[in-house]
Write a structure and sequence with these properties.
Blueprint (H helix, E strand, L loop, with lengths): L2 H26 L7 H23 L1
Helix pairs in contact: 1-2
């Protein structure tokens, strides 16, 4: 496995973590600048991008 694929996998995992954290915040806090809907969508998008990166890195 090359260093590049490992780095892409780590990046994907970080994006999944950030997306999950955004989804968590969207469910709890309304004090953010994002509305609940925008935070929810951004979180889902980050999780999806992270999953694609992990899938690419695993090949």
């Amino acid at each position: 496995m090359s260093i590049k694929k490992i780095a892409i996998g780590v990046l994907g995992a970080i994006l999944i973590g950030l997306g999950a954290y955004l989804l968590y915040l969207a469910g709890i806090s309304i004090k953010l600048e994002l509305t609940i809907y925008q935070g929810d969508s951004a979180g889902k998008l980050l999780v999806l991008i992270g999953l694609f990166l992990l899938d690419y890195a695993s090949r």
